[in-house]
Amino acid sequence: MKVPALIAAALLLLLPAALTQNFDPAPIQIVVKNSFLEEEPLAFNSHVAHKGILLGAMRTLMDSDTNFKFTYIEDPNYGPYLESINGLAGKDADQTYWELLVMKPDGAITRPDVGIGCYIPSANEKIIFNFTKWTKSKTMP
Ligand code: B12
């Protein structure tokens, strides 16, 4: 067999693997929690586009469920800053904000070092929006 024919044969062998890759939207859960209240957190099922950003999944959810509303402001350096959820906004005077946490399928909770415009959720993650306070020193809580 000549070299081009060999390459073509190799590509044909690789094609089924490429076609069976999963580009479907990934299911995620979005949880809204107020750390100052005893009340049960709100939980929503949503999905994120293949390799899509969290902000996209939040928009999809807001468009389909009237119980989830959010606003954000555009920071010149870091992009979208989550300002409010369901009418409750973080306030500098009270040092409150919406913290972004992620629970992995194994139960481990992480605090992403990027915001909603950069974070790319993986399938079956639980995205937790936690209304909380930052510390006086202005270092990250
Ligand atoms: C203080 C601080 C905060 C405070 C801001 C409170 C305040 N009003 O002062 C609080 C605790 C609220 C905060 C929150 C978060 N932060 Co912060 N924060 C900082 C820190 C330590 C200093 C910022 C500062 O005061 N700069 C000086 C002032 C004069 O400049 P400024 O431009 O006006 O600062 C504003 C922006 O930085 C903005 N801001 C702060 N954090 C974030 C995060 C995002 C995603 C956005 C869009 C804006 C933003 O708030 C500041 C005050 O208005 C920086 C690290 C650093 N040393 O720069 C991280 C930093 C900016 N934060 C970061 C992150 C990831 C977050 C969170 C997403 C963490 C989380 N998982 O919850 C959240 C934001 C969640 C949301 N609601 O969208 C990252 C951003 C990286 C990135 N490329 O996205 C940084 C760089 C830290 C890091 N990991 O290295 N943060």
Automatic annotation (TrEMBL):
Record carries keyword S-adenosyl-L-methionine: no
Residue span(s) of domain Transcobalamin-like C-terminal: 72-133
Cellular component GO terms, alphabetical: extracellular space
Origin superkingdom: Eukaryota
Presence of the UniProt keyword Signal in the record: yes
Signal peptide: 1-20
Name of protein: Transcobalamin-like C-terminal domain-containing protein
